[in-house]
Amino acid sequence: MKTARMVVDLSFVGVLLYLSSSKTKKNGVLPTRDERKRVTQRKMYAWDPPAAAKSDEIRSETALALSQPHQPFFSFTATETMSGAGKTVCVTGASGYIASWIVKFLLERGYTVKASVRDPKDPKKTDHLLKLDGAKERLHLFKANLLEDGSFDAAVDGCDGVFHTASPFFINATNPQAELLDPALKGTLNVLASCSKASSVKRVVVTSSMAAVSYNRRSRTPDVLVDETWYSDPDLCQETKSWYVLSKTLAEEAAWKFTKDKGLDMVTINPAMVIGPLLQPTLNTSAEAIANLVNGSQTYPNLTFGWVNVKDVANAHIQAFEIPSANGRYCMVERVAHYSDIVELLHKLYPSFHLPQKCADDKPFVPIYQVSKEKVKSLGIDYIPIEQSIKETVESLKEKNFIGGGSSNM
Ligand SMILES: NC(=O)c1ccc[n+]([C@@H]2O[C@H](COP(=O)([O-])OP(=O)(O)OC[C@H]3O[C@@H](n4cnc5c(N)ncnc54)[C@H](OP(=O)(O)O)[C@@H]3O)[C@@H](O)[C@H]2O)c1
């Protein structure tokens, strides 16, 4: 039993390795994807017929989802659009993938945004923000680094709210302490210290992660429902050298302690793998997961993840700030899917694409599990379906020329 659990828990280490090398190779005769899927599905049915059926729905729902474009919950009326008028908020790490969407939606809603970036002179980090509607009038850039004490004081000063998204999300850390753990943990405390100094700040919304929720010694199988009461186990992260997972786990843990001690109102948003269109000109780690599949990778990883659209994640941040009763943590997963399902969805959407045909290992597929959608509903989030998210990601990757180099998937 313990071994089985570890297979599941080690999955994040796997994706990190996969993301760092898109061309995972495995020679030898392997069962086909369909053969192994049948084995996995037999197991899933044995555990929980409805959950297993859900996995099959991924395929049958594709055509339907795409033929009926998702109607976003957030089609604002004129007054709702301006709910931020007269308010000033700070977004840390504003040039990042998720943060750029938060800044865009905040500006659309009339907020004045104080955006922190590490290098305001780097056009790759700022041009896409400066071009947003409302940026000319209401976007102000601030230079700040997570590792410098007091660095965020000026950006946070006078703000009604703070969205703390800045934290490194990458894989190939040669020095995990300096490159991942310190910026995540010390950086979060640094930002929160600035918030507690600024008496204007009414709430802090922190971008945490499902990485801080589900990596513990509990099994994750189709009958298991992960929710906001779950916490990742730092010892397990350490044992498995899951440094990014550890960075998010320690940062969230420290943030809850700090805000409780200082009486700061904090809400965390805990998304899984975030996909959807990119606003920034650079390739971020989670969009790279899709880019790798369509860019000539021979195999897909034997991993199962939750997936969610970046626009839903950005909107949830703003709702978590605006809705007075919002509190605690919010898990964000539209669908839990194995990489083989993602490949299958890609194939349905882009039949001419050359996609990986086989899994990177010959073990049984890591099973799916469930993630509760109950709490996030109270933020008004009606998730964009995964099919649409994948399509938006690919279209955006094409537009930004992240698809093509060496593969025939143009
Ligand atoms: N994408 C996902 O799938 C996902 C899922 C769950 C949670 N999250 C969380 O969401 C947040 C944003 O992630 P993302 O996917 O949008 O990644 P991203 O595009 O790589 O953005 C990360 C941001 O963190 C900033 N940053 C990193 N180190 C910093 C430092 N020392 N000082 C100041 N800023 C620093 C970066 O600033 P520069 O622009 O200056 O490099 C960048 O703006 C992170 O907290 C991440 O853990 C992401």
Q: Mind explaining what this structure looks like?
A:
By secondary structure, the chain is of the alpha/beta class. It has a domain at 88-275 and 308-334 and 368-383: Rossmann fold (3-Layer(aba) Sandwich), CATH 3.40.50. The protein has 17 helices and 14 strands. The strands form four sheets. It has a seven-stranded parallel beta sheet with strand order 3-2-1-4-5-7-11, sandwiched between helices. A three-stranded mixed beta sheet has the order 8-10-12. Helix 10 links the parallel strand 4 and strand 5. Helix 6 (97-108) crosses helix 14 (310-322). The chain is globular and about 55 Å long. The relative contact order is 0.16. The model is unreliable at 1-18, 20-65 and 72-79 (pLDDT under 50). Bound molecules: NADP nicotinamide-adenine-dinucleotide phosphate. The site of NADP nicotinamide-adenine-dinucleotide phosphate has 26 residues, from helix 6 and strand 8.
Describe the SSE topology:
Elements lengths: L1 H8 L1 H10 L12 H15 L1 H19 L10 H4 L6 E5 L4 H12 L3 E6 L5 H8 L4 H4 E5 L9 H4 L4 E4 L11 H22 L5 E5 L17 E2 L7 H6 L3 H20 L3 E6 L1 E3 L9 H10 L4 E2 L3 E6 H13 L5 E5 L2 E4 H11 L8 E2 L10 E2 L2 H4 L8 H14 L11
Parallel strand pairs: 1-2, 1-4, 2-3, 4-5, 5-7, 6-14, 7-11, 8-10, 9-13
Antiparallel strand pairs: 10-12
Helix pairs in contact: 3-4, 4-15, 6-14, 10-12
